[in-house]
Specification:
One of its GO terms (cellular component) is membrane. With 405 residues, the protein is mostly helical. The chain has one domain (20-202, 223-397): Up-down Bundle (Growth Hormone, Chain: A). Helix content is 74%, strand content 0%. The chain contains 15 helices and no strands. The chain has helices at 20-39, 43-50, 55-83, 87-100, 110-137, 144-172, 177-183, 185-198, 225-239, 245-253, 261-286, 288-308, 312-340, 346-375, 377-397. Helix 3 runs antiparallel to helix 14, helix 12 packs antiparallel against helix 15 (377-397) and helix 14 runs antiparallel to helix 15. The protein is globular and about 50 Å long.
């Protein structure tokens, strides 16, 4: 079985220093997540408590939004390969999301929230694959895992700041929840300004036009077999990885007060941020597969824990451990995608990767919500744990062959 060997440990002379693009993209993600996470921990409670939505509807909204975004990730990644330009799509994606996200403040029904979330995720779909391809192009191979981990750490640091802003607005300033949603416009606007001013294009070889038909799906056959085999366990895992909104609802169900829900979210993202860069660096040394398999196994344990939990402190503990799952897997999976495909195909590859994750999120969230409504939350979380175990077993068996260029 072939696999991607770990890279050589960096010497002091080659110690990693983030490039301009890595720092700029990290700053943009920090600000964007701060904006998004002002809203995210309050949204499921707003939907269920204020707008009267069912748990199943929460799954439809979150899963549907991710699925729509996924189709655009595929197209935008392919297009950025064709034109060998990433920045215009990155800026456009962040701009669209930042403009529409705060409009949740004026929503009067769950259907309106769904429409707003769909457009928000359109922005994410446009920017996601080109951004990851640009990040890979801006980083040497031996530091790729560390760079993706650093980017995820900044993203999650923003997700720490966002809920704290929401908490301050609710508790200290006494804002109504709808007014808090408007505050999300401020860091969103700053993110767009940073993207425009500081992100720089990184030129790469264009895809040979004589070999590629004008269709966003045609480059699929040009991606290596090892990449497609790797998508199988990722798909299986994602089918059990429903929206984290359900975790917030479960925490509330276990007795965590509504006022403290943003702090639970802060805890989760503190752990995500603290663990992402070290885990990414570790993947550069020991390989990507061990960290992904370990992360998915830990995910199964966390979901089993949510299935069996009975006390509020159980939710706090499980959210902390859940953050480690993201640290082990998020940046590592993206670094693996970059490892498996040549540079000129990375936009397309990241598009397919993110499309796989996003499209599977729709049935994952819908089924999870339906199982919760009909059989109870313990059964739903047990289902997620079982799928994670299956995915980890498959990933441990998939051959991983690095790209030659």
């Amino acid at each position: 079985m072939s696999s991607i060997p770990p890279t050589t440990a960096p010497t002091p002379a080659t110690r990693w220093i983030p490039t301009r693009n890595v720092l700029a993209l990290a700053a943009v993600s920090f600000l964007t997540d701060a904006s998004s996470e002002i809203i995210a921990p309050l949204l499921p409670l707003f939907l269920v408590g204020t707008l009267g939505a069912t748990v199943s509807m929460v799954g439809v909204i979150e899963g549907g939004a991710e699925a729509v975004a996924s189709l655009l990730k595929l197209a935008s990644g392919w297009w950025s390969d064709r034109v060998s330009r990433r920045k215009p799509l990155i800026v456009a994606g962040y701009t669209i999301a930042s403009l529409v996200r705060p409009l949740v403040a004026i929503a009067q029904s769950a259907t309106q929230v769904l429409a707003i979330r769909l457009v928000d995720r359109v922005g994410k779909g446009i920017r996601g694959a080109p951004r990851d391809a640009l990040l890979a192009a801006s980083t040497p191979l031996e530091f790729r895992g560390r760079a993706f981990g650093f980017h995820r750490a900044a993203d999650h640091a923003g997700a720490v700041v966002g809920p704290l802003i929401a908490l301050a607005c609710l508790q200290w300033l006494g804002m109504p929840i709808r007014h808090v949603f408007w505050v999300a416009a401020i860091p969103g606007a700053l993110a767009v300004m940073v993207a425009i001013a500081f992100v720089r294009e990184q030129r790469e070889p264009a895809v040979p036009r004589v070999k590629v038909a004008a269709s966003p799906t045609s480059p699929a056959s040009a991606l290596p077999r090892s990449f497609w085999l790797t998508m199988v366990p990722i798909l299986v895992f994602t089918l059990g990885n429903s929206t984290d909104a359900f975790l917030l609802l479960r925490a509330s169900q276990l007795g965590v007060p509504t006022a403290l829900i943003p702090l639970v979210w802060v805890l989760l993202h503190l752990v995500k941020s603290a663990s992402s860069t070290p885990a990414g660096a570790l993947s550069d040394r020991v390989g990507r597969r061990p960290l992904i398999v370990a992360g998915w196994g830990l995910y199964a344990a966390v979901y089993a824990g949510f299935s069996l939990a009975t006390e509020p402190w159980h939710a706090w503990a499980l959210f902390g451990v859940y953050g480690v799952v993201f640290g082990l897997t998020e940046g590592t999976e993206k670094a693996l995608v970059a490892d498996l495909v040549p540079a000129a195909r990375r936009g397309t590859a990241f598009g397919w990767y993110q499309a796989t994750v996003g499209v599977a999120a729709l049935p994952a969230s819908i089924v999870f919500g339906v199982v919760w409504d009909r059989l109870g939350s313990p059964t739903a979380f047990g289902m997620g744990a079982a799928l994670a175990i299956v995915a980890a077993v498959i990933m441990s068996l998939v051959p991983l062959t690095p790209a030659e260029a």
